[in-house]
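Model it.
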Amino acid sequence: MRRIALTTLRTAIGIGLVIYLASSGTIRWRAISGLAANWPISLAALLLLLLDVVLLAWRLRLLLSPRGFHLSLALSFRLTLIRIFFSSCLPGSTGGDVIKIYYAMEGNQGRRTEVATLILLDRAIGMFALLILPLLMIPLSPQSLISRAAVKTLLFGALAVAIIMLTSAVLCFSRRLKDSRLLSSSFQKLPGGRYAEAMFNTIHAYRHNLGTLAASTALSLSTHLLIITVTLLAVWAIHPGTIAREMGVLIPLGHLANSLPLTPGGLGVGEAAFGSLFAMAGLSGGAEALLGWRVLNFVISILGLLYYLQGRRRFVHVAEMPQAIDSPVQDA
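Modeled.
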């Protein structure tokens, strides 16, 4: 009941924020019709979103391979679209990532914790790339924007979180930490320590596959660049002629805010963040740009619904067992 109440509250907050933005004039619903009026631009954006799904599917397939799992690109594409459907269209605390884990674990008894860890690792790499992308866009952005106190704060915050994530990964790769008595004792004493140990060992094993992690990060940067391009196309369709250099930094920062789990799918929070960021740079239509992206994403997510209605099946198969030295603790 508490979970249902929290989900309902989060959804109400998101809808309330959108209603407030519309009543204040930040969102003009009529402007969204530009996606239909300028349909060639929207069609190009949809094709880029499909390419984005292909790259996301390729990234997951790439990450699973070193641990002896096989996932075809076609099945990974299907699994990714199912996640997008649940993330984009269904409010709730479950989320697309949990559904993705649920489907990926099918038929992998004894290694379910490992599969779940790899799905979460895939998600973490995507978040890391989203954090560093605004930093990489700084040289292409006007210095008048970068010098603003609010933008500096956001960029330093993204840098700090990225450093924390990178440091955590380095610690997980440490052989000394893995063999320490303190860590072993902690796993034994903590509730669910067995599963925590399995997750740690799974990530630790990737110290031999740094190239795979680097390639996954590069793919993640490519997917986020596609999302930025799709958002720019949404701006172009809704407000022709308003694309500006400042958006190179503002859009990834806005998508970072949209990824915060404050409301389902970032509804309302993302629109408010986009609107504030664009207004800070003297631009209009920020909230409408994200709404346009949501509409385009919804169209793509319909494919995920069709795949979901086909029923549950096994996606991930065991191709070969990884080396015993890196084998994580198996599930009961």
